[in-house]
Write a structure and sequence with these properties.
The chain has 219 residues and is an alpha/beta fold. It is built from eleven helices and five strands. InterPro entries: EvgA-like, Sig_transdc_resp-reg_C-effctor, Tscrpt_reg_LuxR_C, WH-like_DNA-bd_sf.
């Protein structure tokens, strides 16, 4: 669970939060964090995606905080379920709080929603900032999530530099050059340059060939 290394920002607004975590220890810890960050909030704590689906407040809640899966639902199915939920909620603020390492499922979710993502390694202080920005309609990825999600796969091309590998993983996951530039705090020109070098090293001359190469290597 998030560690309290710094005093988090406290949001006084009277909001409604619906959260779902199937792991009881994580659920209690996350609920405590939310109560500290939002002392005036009405927090509904649930233990499954089915319960989240059946809860009438889920649709109208100011914020939903949910894992990507539960004891009976795997990550890919959970990602598609959350996409459907966000369509119904008209993309109201969603924070996915997960330890899942299923990049395909997470990529599917972030490509089709505006969800923010954090992990249990996220610090308490960072979590409070992520929640505040998420409620403002921003998408935020925690530092711990970026470190996991941007880590190159073992079968990525060894010729790529560290920076190119990060861009490679994000391109493969469906991010645009502009989105990658924003996430990595780099200019669009720099990311475009990395993309050109990746294409050269892969021996392709078009985006169609490059994405076909991704498909061949990763199925």
């Amino acid at each position: 669970m998030p560690m309290r290394t710094e005093k988090p920002k406290c949001y006084k607004s009277d909001i409604q939060i619906v959260m779902m975590q199937s792991n009881i220890q994580i659920r209690y810890g996350l609920q405590y964090c939310l109560m500290e960050i939002f002392p005036n909030a009405n927090i509904i704590s649930l233990d499954s995606l089915a319960a989240l689906s059946e809860c009438p407040e889920t649709i109208t809640a100011d914020l939903v905080v949910s894992d990507l899966c539960d004891n009976g639902t795997k990550e890919n199915a959970g990602a598609h379920w959350l996409i459907g939920l966000q369509f119904t909620r008209k993309n109201k603020p969603l924070l996915v709080f997960t330890n899942s390492k299923k990049q395909n499922a997470i990529a599917t979710l972030v490509q089709n929603t505006q969800a923010s993502v954090a992990t249990t390694k996220t610090t308490f202080f960072e979590l409070s900032n992520i929640l505040g920005k998420t409620l403002k309609g921003e998408r935020v990825f925690s530092t711990s999530f970026n470190e996991l999600f941007l880590r190159p796969q073992e079968n990525s091309r060894q010729l790529l530099t560290k920076s190119e590998s990060k861009v490679y993983v994000m391109l493969r996951s469906g991010y645009s050059v502009t989105q990658i530039a924003h996430q990595l705090s780099r200019s669009v020109k720099t990311i475009s340059s990395h993309k050109r070098k990746i294409m050269q090293k892969f021996g392709v001359t078009s985006e169609v060939e490059m994405f076909a190469k991704f498909k061949d290597e990763h199925g």
